[in-house]
Specification:
293 residues; mainly alpha; mRNA splicing; spliceosome; CWC25
Amino acid sequence: MGGGDLNMKKSWHPLLIKNQERVWKEEQKALEEQKKLNQLRKEKEEERQLQELRQIQATVGGRREQERLDWMYAAGPNQSSSAKAEEMEDYLLGKKRVDSLIEQGTSMSILSADSKEIFSSISNPNANTYRDTQAKIREDPLFLIKKTEQANIKSIVSNPLKMREIQEDLHKERSKKYHKKRPFADSDDADSVRSIEQDRNNRSQKRSRESKIFEMMNDAKKISEERKKRVEKSTKEEYEEEKKLDEDRRRRGMQSDFLKNAYKSAYSSHSSIGLGERLQRHRGTSQKISRED
């Protein structure tokens, strides 16, 4: 028999620990992806149900929720000139901000002088006026949040005492993090602490190495036991098969020996049966065959 399973030396063998670990990681990753997909489907289903409830409420006659961001999808002014079209495109792309115009209180002279309406709805023939657009922008919660954040930042920056307090807090937080990472960095025992940490790391590495060696020994023991069982099974099967073949040979040999002895006793020159008796037997057999015909 062979000296071991040579496939265990291949990097693709499924019984190797690293291959089993890789398969387990891929399975865990697939499970995480499936959980995320299920969560997204659940959220989509909840949004769809909420939208259906709103539509049913609107059809029954209830109060329909007003969309506060419909001005974002409004159509631009009369684009008779290329300059006006480029100006509106800058506003839509975010290169220019609308809130600056609102804060300055300008009348948006960059738009067409003929039309007093700035954002006209695509689907609604009743266009929104400039005042309606301003009201919608002022009522936008995101705009209000950004505006309050900017005001708070501006007030903090303009206050030197507040800035000094913030800087001191940041310095304390950084020093705390540094001391947590290196508790004895400023003391004389830094070398001893480093040696202790190194010993701890060495012990952990030794434990991990011993655990890996123990796992490898267990795997090798399992493989040797399985190989021993396979060898015993194949040996037993070969023994049974050889035994059957011997019995068949012995049976065939006994039959052939009997036929040889009978033939010799009947037809050999040393046979005790004479020629007359043989002819008489042959005559009786031929008469029997003729009667049957």
